[in-house]
Amino acid sequence: MARKLAAGNWKMNGTRAALAELKAIAEATATTDVDVLICPPATLVAAAAETAADAKLSIGGQDCHAATSGAHTGDTSAEMLKDAGAAAVILGHSERRTDHGESDITVRAKTEAAQDAGLQAVVCIGETLDEREAGDTLKVVGSQLTGSLPDGITGENTVVAYEPVWAIGTGKVPTLEQIGEVHDFLRAELVARFGAETGNAIPLLYGGSVKPGNAAEIFAVSNVDGALVGGASLKAADFAPIAAALAAS
Ligand SMILES: O=C(CO)COP(=O)(O)O
User: Fold this and answer.
1) What is the pLDDT of residues 17-37, one digit of tens each?
2) What domains can be seen in the chain, in order of their start residue?
3) What phi and psi values does residue 210 have, to the nearest 5 degrees?
4) ipTM of the complex model
5) What is the pTM (predicted TM-score) of this model?
6) How confident is the model at residue 196 (pLDDT cuts 50, 70, 90)?
7) What is the pLDDT at residue 121?
8) Which atom of ligand 1 is nearest to the CA of 161?
9) 8: helix, coil or strand?
10) Torsions phi, psi of 33, nearest 5?
């Protein structure tokens, strides 16, 4: 069985003032019986890790470079994130695949770098609306999964997040049947490639317009082990009920 994980992706939102909200999230989820991860922008990782030092909540980055160091202006290595107090890093988010042209090969190299640095990799995949309407969803996410995950991963160092691109920040959510179809498929693919023990231990998150009002029904879908939450992770009042719904599922 995979562990349950409520993860928040703050994207490019938040200055030091947002640390007060992080504290509120840590307090509001302190006794919630699921893993909780918040990924603030890189500028806040060190301060966030200090803020959450005594909390069970973990802090993660939103991207890392595949190299450990070197001439890569503007980039951050996995080792640097780890050094700043991060426990995890989101990789291959559709906004990075689109805005920065990241391919599965890039994401796979970053995933290896993250794991070498001792970070849990939260690897994101998901189809566009055109791909869904063409009936290609399983083909697309299957190929992203195969291409983005390196060999030798474990249920501790890897999380997979299914985020349909058309559901991100739009308020549109796939039907529960559509989510279930993809998650069951991903689970089967993971088990086929990594074996039953590892394949069943890798948490499968759903992401895309998860809110307090729809979280419980999404968490009831088979092979949904948690959520990667964008907008609703910015406020404790929204995020804490989502984590609570996961704990109750
Ligand atoms: O992209 C997401 C998380 O990585 C989802 O964002 P929203 O929850 O704002 O739709």
Assistant:
1) 999 999 999 999 999 999 999
2) 5-248 (3.20.20.70)
3) -75, 130
4) 0.99
5) 0.98
6) very high
7) 98
8) 4
9) strand
10) -85, 55
